[in-house]
Amino acid sequence: LASSQDWSKNHCGRRPLIARSDDDKVVGGNPSLRGDWPWSCSMRRPTSHVCGGSLINGQWIITAAHCV
Asked: Which helix (H) or strand (E) holds 62?
């Protein structure tokens, strides 16, 4: 498992607040950028997203049972 993020600079579950725009896609939500949630992952087939997961350490991902 590789990451381009410096884990020591992130606080799990906490992201800096950003200004809200009028074109938000989720009501009350904020857009996210690549790297904003470095513990989140996409479990993929060669051409598509299958399920999401959360990194719990450098070797393991936790996801829903129906994803495996």
From this structure: strand 61-62
Give tens-digit pLDDT for 48-68.
999 999 999 989 999 999 998
Secondary structure string (H, E, C) spanning 33-59: CCCCCCCEEEEECCCCEEEEEEECCCC
Q: What is the model's pTM?
A: 0.51
User: The domain containing residue 17 runs over which residues?
Assistant: 1-68
Q: What b/e readout covers 27-58, taking b as 16+ CB neighbours within 10 angstroms?
A: eeeeeeeeeeebeebeeeeeeeeeeebebeee
Give me the CATH number covering residue 56: 2.40.10.10
